[in-house]
Amino acid sequence: LQSSFELAKVGALFYVVNQYMFDVTICAGPSMYPAINPVGDVVLTNKWAAYRGNYKVGDIVVCANPVAADQRVCKRIAGLEGDTVMVDKGFEQRPFRIPRNHLWLEGDNKAHSFDSRAYGPVPSQLVQGKVLCRVWPLSRIGLIR
Q: What's the pTM?
């Protein structure tokens, strides 16, 4: 009975940590190359940062895809609410002010990224976690810049 209770406590702790604090996810595709390998890197994300809205320009986040809800994207924050970003409009660039409770997300590999430049600002509620580090492959384990 004692070991069953201990196992239940460990299970409950694991659930809380996985549900509310940290997650492991695969980021793949060419949009974040060279920071993230196009064939996929496994990253540790901080879910608590998403709950608190604790991010800054330059952070990499995982969020629900704003145009395909059953998919997730991994992008870098290029602007926060209230910031002004330059948006291509034909042959010119125009300033765009990011609305309240939204983020501007862009891939590092601009030529191969479908991001806010295509679909506009992303509601911050779609962010699922801030990327902390790469955990796989082991040869590339560590912080992602």
A: 0.83
